[in-house]
Design brief:
This protein has helices spanning about 5-30, 40-65, 70-85, 90-105, 110-125, 130-140, 145-155, 165-175. It is an all-alpha fold and about 180 residues long. It has 2 domains: about 15-65; about 70-175. Helix 4 packs antiparallel against helix 5 (about 110-125) and helix 5 runs antiparallel to helix 8. The termini are close together.
């Protein structure tokens, strides 16, 4: 089953894993039914699980530690928090800021993707030497003021058609569920 790359998809995956574990427990009980003493073994395993959870809870209470969190859920929460801070990165500077935030949240793979996107955007910007040549060929009377205006228009926002924000976030949110 395919899960969406958001909090709902992750919660559904975790619920499905729990249901599979419960089904596995039922299958084990049925398979052990014909074995002599299987009921006692199955019950002993259940008691062990219960006591293990109780001792873990007691240990967290005494040490002040929080409830353990599934690392996938913690990762998704970090991504959602960063997504609220940088909802629509468009420029190379936006992506550098996004990479900095992702690095700060210890999401290094996603930070690498954001830096790659920033570098890709920067590499597609025309350099001033080639841009001036292109501008000179397009106009009959090239002026420095005209070049500055043309350069701003050429380099500003032109890459949104190639790098739409939903596609970028989808690429950053990809992970193995």
């Amino acid at each position: 089953m395919a899960y969406s790359n958001d909090m709902f998809g992750l919660q559904q995956l975790m619920a499905d894993e729990q249901a599979a574990q419960q089904q596995s427990n039922i299958n084990n009980a049925v398979n052990l039914a014909s074995t002599k003493g299987a009921g006692m073994m199955y019950r002993a395993g259940g008691i062990g699980d219960q006591r293990g959870q109780a001792y873990a809870s007691l240990g967290r209470m005494l040490t002040g530690q929080e409830e353990p969190v599934d690392p996938r859920m913690a990762r998704m929460q970090k991504l959602e928090e960063i997504r609220r801070k940088v909802p629509m990165p468009e420029t190379a500077e936006d992506f550098k800021n996004l990479a900095r935030l992702l690095n700060g949240a210890e999401l290094y793979e996603e930070a690498g993707k954001a830096m790659t996107m920033a570098n890709e955007i920067k590499s597609q910007l025309p350099t001033k030497s080639t841009a001036y040549k292109e501008y000179s060929e397009m106009t009959t009377n090239p002026t420095p003021e005209g070049f500055k205006e043309w350069y701003k228009e050429t380099t500003g926002g032109d890459f949104n058609s190639h790098y739409s924000t939903p596609r970028i976030w989808k690429a950053l949110l990809l992970f193995e569920l």
